[in-house]
Amino acid sequence: MAKKSSELAALRCPTCRTLVLADDPNLPFCSERCRSIDLGKWASGAYRISSPILDPEVLEGLDAAQLQRGQGRQDDHED
Description:
Radius of gyration: 23 Å
Number of strands: 2
CATH topology: Erythroid Transcription Factor GATA-1, Chain A
Largest sheet: 2 strands, antiparallel
CATH superfamily: Erythroid Transcription Factor GATA-1, subunit A
CATH architecture: 2-Layer Sandwich
Shape: elongated
Number of domains: 1
Number of helices: 3
Distance between the termini: 78 Å
CATH class: Alpha Beta
């Protein structure tokens, strides 16, 4: 059975799961309160990207930075 267009014009608030209509100014949230709660979760680090970094350019940059930090520590200990 096909969904009605009115059913497609709504979704659930990601914070409290309340039904939010497509014309709601707070979309995808149901209220400013839920929007602020979500922002607080991002700011506190509650949301994290759990997949590993697979981009070779990023990995090379990380390796170079780690090597530089390691060399700096060795230079400090060579007094």
